[in-house]
Amino acid sequence: MTAELVRGQNHTLPQTRLEIRVSAGTPVVAGATLGDEQGTVHGVEWIAHPGSPQLPGLEVSKQAAAGHRLAVDLDALPAPVHRVTVLLALPMGVGGPVRFGAVAAPFVAVTGLEGTEIATFTLTGLDSESAVAALELYRRQGAWKVRAVGQGYAGGLAAMLADQGVSGAQELARSVHEAVARGMARSVAPPPPRTPEGDRVRHAGAASGQQAPATPPAPPIGDPAPAATPRPDPAQPRPADGAVPTAGPATSGPINYAHPRRQSAAPPPPPPTAPPAEPGRPAQPVAGDATGWSMEERLYNQVWGMFEDLARTTAAYRSAVDFAESRMDQELDRALSDPRNRIGGAGDRAREEARTKRDQLTDRARAALDRDLAQLAAEAAVVEPALPAAYAGWDNPVWHAYRVPMEIPMALRIGDLHLPESVDLRIPLLVRLPLERGLWVDSGRTAPEAAALTGPDQLRRLAMENAVAHAARLLAVYPAGEFSVHVIDPAGSATAALAPLVDSGVLAAPPAAGAGGVASVLAHLTRRVDLVQMAIRAGAGDALPPDLDTAEQLLIVNDFPHGFDDRAVTQLRYLADEGPSVGVHLLMVADREDASAYGPVLDPLWRSLLRITPVADDHLADPWVGHAWTYEPLRTPPGSRVLHNVLAQVAAARRSGRRP
After folding, report:
1. How high is the pLDDT of residue 64?
2. pTM (2 decimals)?
3. Residues 6+ apart with CB under 8 A from 114
């Protein structure tokens, strides 16, 4: 039976391998400190946090998230440790809430590895606190117990660490928040909302072919698998016909640009489209085998489900391999601690036995991974051909039957992702529409081999061609007249790459060149953001000037910061921060080193954009486990005219004045 704890109450733990699950109404930082019998933390090496997520017997998430799973093995903790304190903190400097009183009360549960709850605690009564000591696992007379703490700190993470005796608490807290900000900047957008049951619903079952349980089993040490950040409420309708949205008072929060015609109730599960699988055999995958009101939504949720399945099954494999190596080292240490075993046959036998056990564990883990990968590969094989144009690669036949749509899709594909363990299994990277953050195509020479072997001029050309392809896809998936593209090319260096957009006539105006062109375009878009924000705050969306373009706007900036003065840089940062909420989006093509003279002033700009690359690069992180995923940009088939044909249809639809 689950013990529902209140502040100060404790409960005996029946096992030592545990998982601590955290659920909050907003992304939070989760960490843990190790203390001695008096609760003193003796240094930073006794603290697990996103910048240093692993300690012996303890692992936390690398990212801020609304849900976390912390893995704990109490038997593996160092001998001097008598106390494990679970910490929660609101991330600073990322534009979120700054006190727990403004969000839903966090919920913490201690579970076994099979998912059975042992004790739960809801942290009620918080107000101005931005950090809180949630739970405490402590050792008393050889037995481990859990105590509900709920001690909040208005001084934040630094005050909480200082209270536990950590020297340099202020600097450590700052480094933690910086690590969180970096993690949030490189993480792909969170997945769609979960179903009321809280799990992916698929008739074909999980990646292994088995029906997903109501509460998924916890991963072993090494796979904290933080849950995903909830999306904004999809039930709020988005204005149609390009109208600028109106809202209530400014205190009502940011504008909701959710997909139109979404229902407020839970979406229905997919109808059964395949016969049940034979016992002992995985079910046959089916395209659209996920919850949703439409096939488009089902495919979107199914792709995200595949993404999560691959992240978690790979994390379980890596955790098992790490455990096998650690176990072998421990067995060798014990066997060879006796001097008599260090020489002769006894030592050799001990080494051989330890290696054999390691290999057996590793082989079992690999077999489980291969089984899951095979199921996911089969699913990908049926899902990819069924994807609509917005989700499909340029080589998908769906583009040959392209017609200008009458409504905005849920999402857009901007590339593919894969992991080293499954290079051939590619997961489409889908971002929600309208864009919730800008894009940055990095034209610099990064560490991966593909970029290192590519010359700087070729990288810049590839980066701009990649940006043009993204702009073309955005134009293609929006209804006619509902999306406008502006280009800033101060030196005119991207003329060749921009040819498809210029020749088709889909640009709002010719590419802006020189300092004057930069200033003109930025002033125009800044004015639009200001006017729409004022209209929204005043509840007067119908009072906008008649010359204001109410369509979504995309600004492509090439060769930043060339042609930008300090005022232009400030305006660009303003558009990156405030533009997405009112339909103005940014697509940067830049090498960060070119802007190094600005120092840390531009750090918020780079963090606000989703960084993608013109060549393969392993820099993106998933929102569950934080794996480093290799991003592959989408490319048109060699010799294909698909991009030009699509843009020609977009231009023709605009000239005919066709609107949804």
Report:
1. 83
2. 0.74
3. 217, 218
